[in-house]
């Protein structure tokens, strides 16, 4: 294997230590950081995510409350709950699990979460802050793509980053987040002709598409940093958007799936709860 493996689990463990230390300090000041998760309906993956967030948060010393509402809950009731959580000083972060049932407007619900408690970084104000460079709460998966590079001691400034995918969750916010790190950025998507031409120019290649193993070894510049945000289910397991086994012979650094980008996301959501507390204090 030519490439250095970027160990997302080890990086996540370091971030968890940093977060747990900050939680201890806050507790000494009499603040018990709390995340509230709103889950509407019984989507099996969302139930699993909510429970794993609870376990992870409890281990880090956070308070956690799950508001699990029936799938028939009306939009107004969800809005009323979020408004109540916005005004609750003991709640520092709010996360709404997606997908919501079809009769509920995702956009309206997202806009209702206070931007200072929006730990998922989905409120339009936080999205705007990504562009303006102001401090805000930013989404965990693109943040994770940047963290795995930085914490491996690899430079971003001055490098050519090529992002494949412009989805709302990963690719699009990442474009502006990595631009803020002074990369030169190219964005590719389903309408990009000759994708391989672009990916071969990348010093840093980030895949955020959702198509199993679509980035082949011959699409990678030798020595490049390859970050795979994709999660695809195949043969009862998961794999990324990069054809890992072949790509690791060409890349200089590479994240595996599982064990890469996805390993950091829960820790970064909790780090956002702490950032939210700092932003909330500045507003007081
Ligand atoms: N690691 C984690 O914790 C985590 C969290 C969230 C998501 N994910 C994963 O990240 C991936 C992206 O998620 P997302 O929500 O951003 O996806 P998305 O909204 O579905 O966006 C996918 C993007 O890929 C582009 N695309 C599709 N086919 C392509 C092709 N053949 N060549 C080039 N680009 C192509 C699409 O282009 P168009 O815009 O032109 O349609 C779109 O911009 C998924 O695998 C998802 O499971 C991981």
Automatic annotation (TrEMBL):
<dbReference type="GO" id="GO:0035999">
    <property type="term" value="P:tetrahydrofolate interconversion"/>
</dbReference>
<protein>
    <recommendedName>
        <fullName>Bifunctional protein FolD</fullName>
        <ecNumber>1.5.1.5</ecNumber>
        <ecNumber>3.5.4.9</ecNumber>
    </recommendedName>
</protein>
<keyword id="KW-0554">One-carbon metabolism</keyword>
<comment type="similarity">
    <text>Belongs to the tetrahydrofolate dehydrogenase/cyclohydrolase family.</text>
</comment>
<comment type="pathway">
    <text>One-carbon metabolism; tetrahydrofolate interconversion.</text>
</comment>
<keyword id="KW-0486">Methionine biosynthesis</keyword>
<keyword id="KW-0511">Multifunctional enzyme</keyword>
<dbReference type="InterPro" id="IPR036291">
    <property type="entry name" value="NAD(P)-bd_dom_sf"/>
</dbReference>
<dbReference type="GO" id="GO:0004488">
    <property type="term" value="F:methylenetetrahydrofolate dehydrogenase (NADP+) activity"/>
</dbReference>
<dbReference type="GO" id="GO:0004477">
    <property type="term" value="F:methenyltetrahydrofolate cyclohydrolase activity"/>
</dbReference>
<keyword id="KW-0560">Oxidoreductase</keyword>
<keyword id="KW-0521">NADP</keyword>
<dbReference type="InterPro" id="IPR046346">
    <property type="entry name" value="Aminoacid_DH-like_N_sf"/>
</dbReference>
<comment type="subunit">
    <text>Homodimer.</text>
</comment>
<dbReference type="GO" id="GO:0005829">
    <property type="term" value="C:cytosol"/>
</dbReference>
<feature type="domain" description="Tetrahydrofolate dehydrogenase/cyclohydrolase NAD(P)-binding">
    <location>
        <begin position="139"/>
        <end position="278"/>
    </location>
</feature>
<feature type="binding site">
    <location>
        <begin position="165"/>
        <end position="167"/>
    </location>
    <ligand>
        <name>NADP(+)</name>
    </ligand>
</feature>
<keyword id="KW-0378">Hydrolase</keyword>
<dbReference type="Pfam" id="PF00763">
    <property type="entry name" value="THF_DHG_CYH"/>
</dbReference>
<dbReference type="InterPro" id="IPR000672">
    <property type="entry name" value="THF_DH/CycHdrlase"/>
</dbReference>
<keyword id="KW-0658">Purine biosynthesis</keyword>
<feature type="domain" description="Tetrahydrofolate dehydrogenase/cyclohydrolase catalytic">
    <location>
        <begin position="6"/>
        <end position="120"/>
    </location>
</feature>
<dbReference type="InterPro" id="IPR020630">
    <property type="entry name" value="THF_DH/CycHdrlase_cat_dom"/>
</dbReference>
<keyword id="KW-0368">Histidine biosynthesis</keyword>
<keyword id="KW-0028">Amino-acid biosynthesis</keyword>
<dbReference type="GO" id="GO:0000105">
    <property type="term" value="P:L-histidine biosynthetic process"/>
</dbReference>
<dbReference type="Pfam" id="PF02882">
    <property type="entry name" value="THF_DHG_CYH_C"/>
</dbReference>
<feature type="binding site">
    <location>
        <position position="231"/>
    </location>
    <ligand>
        <name>NADP(+)</name>
    </ligand>
</feature>
<dbReference type="GO" id="GO:0009086">
    <property type="term" value="P:methionine biosynthetic process"/>
</dbReference>
<comment type="function">
    <text>Catalyzes the oxidation of 5,10-methylenetetrahydrofolate to 5,10-methenyltetrahydrofolate and then the hydrolysis of 5,10-methenyltetrahydrofolate to 10-formyltetrahydrofolate.</text>
</comment>
<dbReference type="GO" id="GO:0006164">
    <property type="term" value="P:purine nucleotide biosynthetic process"/>
</dbReference>
<dbReference type="InterPro" id="IPR020631">
    <property type="entry name" value="THF_DH/CycHdrlase_NAD-bd_dom"/>
</dbReference>
């Amino acid at each position: 294997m030519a490439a250095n493996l970027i160990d997302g689990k080890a990086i996540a463990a370091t971030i968890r230590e940093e977060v747990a230390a900050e939680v201890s300090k806050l507790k000494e000041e009499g603040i018990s950081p709390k995340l509230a998760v709103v889950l509407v309906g019984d989507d099996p993956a969302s139930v699993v995510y909510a429970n794993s967030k609870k376990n992870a948060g409890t281990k880090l010393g956070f308070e956690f409350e799950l508001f699990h509402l029936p799938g028939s809950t009306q939009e107004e009731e969800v809005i009323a709950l979020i408004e109540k959580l916005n005004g609750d000083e003991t709640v520092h972060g709010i996360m709404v699990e997606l997908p919501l049932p079809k009769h509920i407007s995702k956009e309206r619900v997202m806009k209702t979460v206070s931007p200072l408690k929006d730990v998922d970084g989905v409120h339009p104000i936080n999205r705007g802050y990504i562009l303006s460079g102001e401090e805000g709460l930013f989404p965990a998966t693109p943040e994770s793509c940047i963290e795995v590079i930085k914490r491996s001691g690899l430079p971003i400034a001055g490098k050519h980053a090529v992002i494949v995918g412009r989805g709302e969750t990963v690719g699009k916010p990442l474009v502006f987040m990595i631009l803020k790190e002074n990369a030169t950025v190219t964005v590719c998507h389903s309408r990009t002709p000759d994708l391989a031409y672009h990916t071969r120019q990348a010093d840093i290649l980030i895949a955020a598409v959702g198509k199993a193993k679509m980035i082949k070894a011959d699409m990678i510049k030798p020595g490049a940093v390859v970050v795979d945000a994709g999660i695809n289910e195949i043969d009862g397991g998961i794999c990324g958007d990069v054809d890992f086994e072949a790509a690791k012979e060409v890349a200089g650094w590479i994240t595996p799936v599982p064990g890469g980008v996805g390993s950091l996301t829960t820790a970064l959501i909790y780090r956002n709860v702490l950032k939210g507390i700092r932003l909330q204090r500045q507003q007081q």
